[in-house]
Structure formats: structure tokens, C-alpha cells
Amino acid sequence: MNGEHVLLRINLSDGTCNSKDIPLSTLREYIGGKGLGSRLLLDEIPPRCDPLGEKNKIIFVAGPLTGTSFPTANRYGILYKSPLTGTYAESYSGGGVAQKLRASGHFSVIIEGKASEPVQVHVREHDVKIKSAEALWGKDTLETCDVLGATTNRDLDVLTIGPAGENQVLIANVQNNKFHSAGRCGPGAVMGSKNLKAIIFSGNKRPALNKKAQFKTLVRDVLQRFRDNPLVYGREGVYRKLGTPVIVDWANKLGCFPTRYYTRGYSDGWESINADAIVSQILKRRVGCWNCPFTCGKLVEVSQGPFKCEIEGPEYETIANFGGLCDIRDIRAIAKINEYCDRMGIDTISAGSLCGLAIEAKRRELIPGLKDIEISYNAPLEVLNFLEMMVKKKGIGEEFSMGTGFLERKYKLKGLAMHVKGLEFAGYDPRAFRGFALSYGVAPEGPTHLRSVYHGIEKDLPNRTSYEGKVQPMIEQEDKMALIDSFIVCKFIRGILDWPLMARMYNIIFDASITVESLRAIAARMVTASRQFNYREGFTRDDDYLPERVYTEPLPRMDGTGDSHRLDKESYEKMLDEYYEARGWSSDGAPPAEPPRIGKQTDLTQPQGDSNR
Ligand code: SF4
Question: Of 127, 359, 499, 552, which has the most beta carbons under 10 Å away?
Fold first, then answer.
């Protein structure tokens, strides 16, 4: 092995490990991150396996830029079959752990099997150790990071689950660097099902680059692009100064801020939970991920009272789901809830949405088990109590820990529950959009904003609520995001990444001469690979529709109107047809029988050496 791009396989059932090189030809075909991970997912995970059973696997993967001086190349991906949705799932997280994954000499780590008792895995250069985690089991994620030295020892970094993952709550996250989360589809529950509490990476290996001079020029040109966009990326730019909570303002004005469990598109209290509220009331200092010039994160502190806490956050999605859907109008309370979710290791988007559903289902008397539970709008202490019931699977909390799709089926909540494929919506009501609404529908794991991020473009279009001409631009964004998640860099720099620049990145990294057209084909194939996985699991066109409410209930806006904020089902159908055709899928949404496979010489499913390290 040349040791540059090593795939490490750890079997928790028998305690064996082996590793092999990922050939350059494979990386040229799949790049890394999403591209490589989705290929591995198709090859490694048997069809229709139990997501919480021994046969599901967790695939950690870096990108070819990870650990280099390329700004924001500080993220790792986790790919797995979701226990929440039963679909393909991918989660990405920043912080610093991805750099340590590569410093440990590895590019991807596959965890398979199941340990008979709680374990932690230490991955170092030339050495992997599986050790007992009995003493860590039950500790929250912040405590676990402290015990493992992740906050005191700069030579190592930790990924961990909290009590929610241990209890296999289906919205459990994986946390790293304390406040960074890889989540949405329950990767923490998959780790918990394997009795895997934490992975520690350490090492000093630096990624080798063939074209050092060209790479240096590339980084210089990227930094220049940031300087050319000071309003976005400058010291006083929007990311550093305000971060994602700045979205609270435009989302309310546009009428897509999901409020009181999707009964309105704005909150009466939005000015008490926006970026200005954070900066003026609780900001301690600005913080950022490894090798990022923007420091878009906010370390905040509530120094006393029932909401006493210190965390990095809250980000827009957390504010939208607790401040909007649960109508909590106190930024300090949202910070406290955010801290609880991070400590326990649950996804704030799904958790906020499930609390909003509980509030509205109780008001409408739709779930008998909620009768004696105190949960209502703008009542943060009640929400905190309900979250604890979910994390500990106490009473009706156990059913809510299984997600909105489960609750809809059990209690016949079709007229209320908001989800696609079982996943709760990100922080934008789809009724305010058209192309982005389609993106919510066709995203492989359900309505995440991150597969296309098309809302960021569509919100400014004069024809925002028109269906015409939306499919191709949305596909363009989906393909671009597939590449960003494969190189893996932060999506916040998407504004300076265009196709020619991404082709240049590819050619420098892989010593190649790819055209933009061929790069687009690689990206489109990645999207089809995720579809292939889902189709194999039984997902079809029927699963790409949004909930009935978005076609039947107009969404009231701040100015008293709302008629344009409703989707027309027939027009949505036409967008779906156009989307499938453009992707080369059948009218039922079936992708080609088998996406192009890597050749035998690049088969990564068989061990090569270094077994039983
Ligand atoms: S822009 Fe923010 S989220 Fe992205 S890498 Fe930088 S600090 Fe991390």
C-alpha cells in the first residue's frame, strides 16, 4: 500500500481490522465523501437489512481535500442506512475531527458487526485498538469528550454518541468537537445499535499532494474570491458577523418560517430569536471549524436562571424548529434546549418538529397518550421535559422517539404530520417555494435543505412561486452540492465555487484533465447512486410527494395573504415528471437497473492486508 488513501475496516463482532489502499482510479471515479460513500453503501449493505441490525454498516469518509490547506476542508461524512426512514442516508459535520481522521492515515473507515458490550475505538497511525466503554456508557457527549481528552489534548479528536444514541432513539446524532453534529437520519442510533460509544482519531500524517505549486495557486485564488465578496465572507461579512440565524429575518418576511407546527409562515416573536438577539444578549465569542477563515459559529452563554448554559449555537435550523414550530420566543431558552439536544445527541431539527407535532396533536386531542402531558406553545420548560421523555423513551416519549412517520401511521395523522419518507422538514416551509419543494420531495433521505440548497437561490427569484423553469436549475444545484459533499468542503463557500473552479480542483488533486461536462456526469451519477439504493429498498415515486397539507392548506403570511403559499398537486406532478426524465429515470422514479460499478481491480469490499491489527 502507498498509504495515501487507506480504507480501514473494523469488525466489532470479532474485533478484527484490515485496511487497503483505495486506488487512484476509484477516487477519480468517485472523488471521496458522498461519491465514494454512496458507492460503498451500495456495495456493502445488503438490501432490506435491518438498519439497527448487525448487517447495517457505518461508513465514515473524508474528501480528497480534507486536512489540506484548502479553506473549509474540515468535514467528514457518515453514510448508512437510516433507521428513521429506511433510506440511504448521509450526514456531514465540521469542527476538527476530519482533519484528525486523515492525520491518522485513513481516508475512510467502515464499521461493521456489533460489539457484545460497549466499546470505544482508537484509530491511530499503524494501530487500531478496541477498548471497553463501560465507564463512558450513560455519559452525555460533552462529558465524553472531556473524559477522552478531546478538549485538552490537541493530538486527538473524538466522535461520540450521547444517551439518545445508546437508547437507539431514531433521531440520534453523532457529535464531534462537542457542538458539531452529524445527524438528521439517526447515525447515532446505528452506532448505539453496535454498542459503539466513541471513535478517537489521532496522528500526524499530512495528505500528500502531487501538484504542490498548482495547489498553492488554487488556494490563493480561492482566498482571493473570498476577499472579492466582503459582504459575505469578509470580517464584517454576514457569515462571521451574524451566521445562519440571519435567515430568521428573511424567512419571516418571505413567509416560509415554519411556525406553530406549520399553521403559519411567520412568528410574532421573530425579532426576539434572530441573529441580533443572539449578538446583543448571549454572544460570548465567535468560533469556527479547523482551517476556516470565517468563524461563523457563535459561542454563547446564559450565565444564570433556568436556561443557564454555554454552547456553540443555536443555528438557524434549531431556531426555526423550536422558535418557530414550538413558538418559543426567548433566545436564551432556545440556547438551553440546543445544549440539551447536543448533550444527549439528538437532532435539533427533528426534535423540534416532533415537539411541535406533540403540541398540536395534544391541542387537537389526536394522541391519547398526550392527555396528561404538559406541552404547549412558547413553554420551553415543558419542551425540555418532553425531550427528556424522548431521550429516555419514557411513556409516550418512546413513540415520539421513533419519528413523525411512525406517529402518522399509528395515529392516522395524515392531515397534520409533516414529513417526507419519515424525515421531518428542515427549517423552511415548502409552500413558499416550488423548485425547492421538489428538492424536499426527491432528496434521498427526505426533506433536508442540504441536498440542493436551492431555497437560497429561489427566494430571490421574481418567479419564486412559479413552477416554470425550476427543475433544471434545481438539478444544477443538486449536482453541485453532490460534488461539494464529495470534495468535502463547507457548503457556505458554495457562492465562490463554480463548475470551472471545481474542475480545476479535481484536475490538480487527481492529476487529471477532466472537462466540466465530464464532472457534471460524475455528479449526476452520484445522485443516481443514492436513488438506486432507495429503489432497492422499495422506495418509488409514491415516496416523493409532500404531505397533503401543502396542497390543501394555504400558509398565512405576515401581510395577511397566503394564497400563493400553497402547492398545486398537478403542477408538482409535472415537475416530478420533468425531474425524472432529466435524470434518466423512469416515470415511476426508477433509476437505471444498476449504476456504473467500479471495476474488479478497484473492488473495495474484499480485505487486502494488515488484518487483526
Ligand atoms: S463557514 Fe462556519 S461551518 Fe463552515 S467551515 Fe467555516 S466555521 Fe465551519
Answer: 359
